[in-house]
Amino acid sequence: MHLKAMTLRGFKSFASATTLRFEPGITCVVGPNGSGKSNVVDALSWVMGEQGAKSLRGGKMEDVIFAGTTGRPPLGRAEVSLTIDNSDGALPIEYAEVTLTRIMFRNGGSEYQINGDTCRLLDFQDLLSDSGIGREMHVIVGQGQLDSVLHADPMGRRAFIEEAAGVLKHRKRKEKALRKLEAMKANLARVEDLTGELR
Ligand code: ATP
Fold first, then answer.
1. Which of 64, 96, 171, 188 has its CA 20 to 30 A from that of 77?
2. 164 C-alpha vs ligand 1 centroid, how far in Å?
3. What does the record give as the function of this protein (predicted)?
4. How far apart, in whole angstroms, are the C-alpha atoms of residue 136 and residue 148?
């Protein structure tokens, strides 16, 4: 599995559609200060499901949408597509090439697509998580982030390893199921109280 290409449209400083192609191996992005190198990394993180504006160096999520310049008006939507070579089947989907797209509208709506088909954020996250490149796996090490990995407490370190091993998804599902079970127990106790009162 390797990242073949990324297309940005209206994402941060990339107002016009811009496609970056990547070959297997190491890719370096070079450019002057403020030219958008970190925006490329933000786009990668965003399309992989990042939900925190702060992680994307913004105050609110809409900050990822092109805000306009003196010569160009702001845009109403941001879109990033990631094309992944899946000929080795690392992503559990029957396509040799997978394109993941995230779109966000200025009115707050957003859309996720897998190979052009609209899907839920959960489907998107599950697909990535199963292959070990989900949102919480630190494949992207930002400036200063190395420190947080090195200084993570044992639980934090365990979370990185669990994500890489693909068990984090199951842990989250278990936690969700346990929360539902607790709510059910509370409801059941309430029903028992009421039936007790009616006897
Ligand atoms: P450095 O080398 O200094 O770290 P860089 O190449 O990583 O710089 P970025 O931080 O990726 O640069 O890009 C910053 C530029 O992106 C700034 O000019 C900023 O105005 C622009 N930018 C960020 N968000 C938006 C947005 N929503 N709309 C338009 N431009 C934006």
1. 96
2. 30
3. Required for chromosome condensation and partitioning.
4. 13
Q: Output the CATH code of domain 2-135.
A: 3.40.50.300
E strands in 10-159: 18-21, 77-85, 97-105, 110-114, 117-119
**Scanning the structure block, which residue is given the tokens 């090439």?**
97
Task: Count CB neighbours of 125 within 10 A.
Answer: 19
Mutate to test the pocket of ligand 1, among 9, 12, 41, 61 (most ligand atoms within 8 A of CB): 12
Q: Which atom belonging to ligand 1 lies closest to the Cα atom of 65? A: 27
What pTM was computed for the model? 0.73
Can you give the residue ranges of every domain in the chain?
A: 2-135, 171-199
Q: Is 24 annotated as a binding residue?
A: no
Torsion angles phi and psi, residue 55, rounded to 5: -65, -20
> Is 36 near ligand 1, meaning CB less than 6 Å away?
yes
Q: How far apart are CA 74 and CA 99, in angstroms?
A: 26
Query: What residues form DSSP beta bridges with 11?
Result: 14, 65
Q: What dihedral do alpha carbons 17, 11, 35, 21 form, nearest 10°?
A: -50
The span from the CA of 81 to the CA of 113, in Å, is 9
pLDDT digits (tens, 9 = 90+) for 130-183: 766 655 554 566 666 678 778 889 988 888 777 767 787 788 889 999 999 999
ipTM of the complex: 0.95
108 is in an annotated binding site: no
